[in-house]
C-alpha cells in the first residue's frame, strides 16, 4: 500500500507479552470508580516537585513511575481504576514550539513516549494496579497525527496519502466534513488519518489488540470518536477486547447515542453540559435540565446510561472552581458523577480544589499540592466512593436499576435523585440559601419512622409515620442519604449511626 512506502520493512516493535490482562468488560467496569490523570502532571518517580508553569505547554516531568509511587493516595480515596494520558511516542508542535506533554500528538503508534518511561515502567504500572485489584485505562488516538515537515517521521503512516487531503473542519453539521477534514488550525494541523482505507484500518485494529495485551490494559478512553466513521468502531472495539468509552464531544444526546452501539459507551458530555449550566450559573441555572437530559440519555443510549463515563471536570474544559467559588455549589457538582447510573470519573486535582481555567491552565502539577490528604473535597470524595461501594454491595440490583428523579416544588434549584439505597439531594442555591426537598410516601422508598443517614456528614433524619420524608438544608450543601440499615456497623461509613440503628431495631423487635 502506497502510504506505507516510507516504512517498508516496518516491524511491530511492541510485541512482548509480559503482564496479565483482566480483559475487563463493561459490566466489570460498572463497579469501578476512575481517577483521571494527565501523566505529565501527576507525580515524578523520583519524588521531586519541580515548578510547572502550565502556560508554557512544556513537559513538567510526571511519569509512570510517579503514578506507581502514588497509588496509595489514589486508592485511599476509594478509586479502583485510573485513566492515563496516551502512552505512544509523540512529536512536538512543528510550528508553535508547544510540547506534546498531553500525549495526543502521536508520532509512532508502535513505540512509547519516553518522557513517561520505558516499556518496563508501563508494565510495572499495570502490574502494580492489578496487584491492588485496580484497573488501567489508557487514552488512545486513532483519528489524527500532527503535521510535521517530514512525513517520514510519522509511523507507520509515513506518507501524505495515508491521510485525507487537506481541509479544516468547517461545518459541524456536515458529518463527512467532521469525519474527513482536519482538526486543528494552520499553526497546528492534525492530519486526518484515512480511515476509509482498509490497510490503514487493519493496522489500527491489529495495533490496538497488541497494545492492550502487551501492557495489560483493562479499558480504553477513545479520543475524537465522532471524527471517524461510525462503522469503523465495532471491529476496533472487538479487537481491543476490553471496555471502550469514547469521547464524542457534543451537547446532544441524539447525536451521541449511535456511538454507544459501536463502542461500549461514551463519556457523558451531554449531561456534563447540563450540569455546567445548572450549577455554574448558580441560581439562574436550571436544575431541571439535568433530569431532562439524563433521562434522554437513559432512553437513547445502548445499555442506558449504565456504561457511560460520568464526569464534571476534565483536561479539555475549565475546572469548576475557575468560575465558582461558593464551596456549597462545588460540593453539589462534585457529587453528581457518584450518584447516577454511569461510572464515576474524577479529574485529578479536583480533590485538591484546583482552579485552573481553559486548556492549558487546567493541567496543573499535582505534586505542587503536596498530595495533602486533609482537604475537605478529598474527604467528600472518599465518602462518595464509599457510599457507592456500600450501595453496590447492599443492593444486588443497584447497578442495573436506573436513577429516577423525584419531582420537587422548586424544580429549578433542587434535584432529588433516587437510586436505592441512595437518595441524593442536590441544590444550586449556594451557601446562603435554605432549600427543602420532600419525598412523598407514594414514592415507596421508605418505611415509617425509618432512620436515614446523610453519609456526607453522618447526620440523621427520620421518615414520617407514613414513610414520607422532608429535608431542609440551610447552607446549600448536598445530601446523600442512605437508610441506616443499609450501612455497616463495622464499615468506614458512619458506622456509629449504623450501629445505633441496628441497636434500636433490636430493641424494637424485642
Ligand atoms: C492545543 C493547545 C491549546 C489550544 C489548542 C488550539 O491547541 O494546547 O491551548 O487552545 C490535544 C491537547 C490540546 C491541544 C490539542 C490540539 O491537542 O490536549 O492541549 O490544544 O492539537 C480531544 C482530546 C483533547 C486533544 C484532542 C486532540 C482531542 O480530549 O485533549 O487535544 O487529540 C473537538 C473534538 C474533540 C477534541 C476537542 C479538543 O476538539 O471533537 O475530540 N478533544 C465543539 C465541537 C467539538 C469540539 C469542541 C471544542 O467544540 O462540536 O467537536 O471538540 O473545539 C456543546 C456543543 C458541542 C461543542 C461544545 C463546545 O459545546 O454541543 O458541539 O463542541 O454545547
Ligand atoms: Ca477523521
From TrEMBL:
<feature type="signal peptide">
    <location>
        <begin position="1"/>
        <end position="23"/>
    </location>
</feature>
<keyword id="KW-0479">Metal-binding</keyword>
<keyword id="KW-0106">Calcium</keyword>
<keyword id="KW-0325">Glycoprotein</keyword>
<dbReference type="GO" id="GO:0016787">
    <property type="term" value="F:hydrolase activity"/>
</dbReference>
<dbReference type="InterPro" id="IPR013780">
    <property type="entry name" value="Glyco_hydro_b"/>
</dbReference>
<protein>
    <recommendedName>
        <fullName>Alpha-amylase</fullName>
        <ecNumber>3.2.1.1</ecNumber>
    </recommendedName>
</protein>
<dbReference type="InterPro" id="IPR006047">
    <property type="entry name" value="GH13_cat_dom"/>
</dbReference>
<keyword id="KW-0119">Carbohydrate metabolism</keyword>
<keyword id="KW-1015">Disulfide bond</keyword>
<dbReference type="InterPro" id="IPR015340">
    <property type="entry name" value="A_amylase_C_dom"/>
</dbReference>
<dbReference type="InterPro" id="IPR013777">
    <property type="entry name" value="A-amylase-like"/>
</dbReference>
<dbReference type="Pfam" id="PF00128">
    <property type="entry name" value="Alpha-amylase"/>
</dbReference>
<feature type="domain" description="Glycosyl hydrolase family 13 catalytic">
    <location>
        <begin position="36"/>
        <end position="388"/>
    </location>
</feature>
<dbReference type="InterPro" id="IPR017853">
    <property type="entry name" value="GH"/>
</dbReference>
<dbReference type="InterPro" id="IPR006046">
    <property type="entry name" value="Alpha_amylase"/>
</dbReference>
<keyword id="KW-0732">Signal</keyword>
<keyword id="KW-0378">Hydrolase</keyword>
<comment type="similarity">
    <text>Belongs to the glycosyl hydrolase 13 family.</text>
</comment>
<keyword id="KW-0326">Glycosidase</keyword>
<dbReference type="Pfam" id="PF09260">
    <property type="entry name" value="A_amylase_dom_C"/>
</dbReference>
